[in-house]
Design goal:
It contains 7 helices and 7 strands. With 199 residues, it is α+β, with helices and mostly antiparallel strands. The protein folds into 2 domains: 81 residues, no CATH class; 112 residues, Gcn5-related N-acetyltransferase (GNAT) (Aminopeptidase, 3-Layer(aba) Sandwich). It has a 7-stranded mixed beta sheet with strand order 2-3-4-5-6-1-7. Helix 1 packs across helix 2. The longest helix is centred in the middle third of the chain and has 16 residues. The chain is globular. 33% of the residues are buried.
Amino acid sequence: MGDDRLKPQLVMRRAGFDGLPDVRLPDGYGLRCYRDESDGAAWEQIVAAAFERETEAGEFDTRLRQHEAFRPERVLFAVRDEIPVATASAWDSPKWGKQTGQVHMVAVVPRHRGQHLGYWVSLAVLHQFRREGRRDAMLSTDDPRLPAVKTYLRLGFVPVLVHENQRQRWAEVFAAIGRPDLTVEFADILSGPVVSPIE
């Protein structure tokens, strides 16, 4: 993002994976993990459409497949008629600790929005973390991504204060999603100390 007032990214955390609901995608959609190289191209198309930007040829390889965290079962797709239309990855988050997973690169093709696919693929990532024996999960997002913030709150994530400017930014985000009450609910976090990742 070009606006320095919106840096660093917002961070959220979910403590533990007890009580996760089952993954139940809408009728006509399925869930699967990465299978072959064609899924790399599908991932690039989803990301390009979701974030309205060009992806470079081979971006999936450089950003995900060549990363030490890559495992086929960690890259998840929601599919419609076997065509991937949404994705999220169960990634490592070493700067927050070895037992912490990172919900990474959540993206939905615009014409499939409204089906809560971002919620379902993110939930599937949390189930993957539980299978791996992770302790908790972190994610990063941007202030304007209000639907994503609502999804993450629904999944049990709470804000993590990683910069002084986020005290006000979180209050503005909560107001923008129609939940100013969350500023009170998370007052201990938003008025507490800034948290630094492990370096």
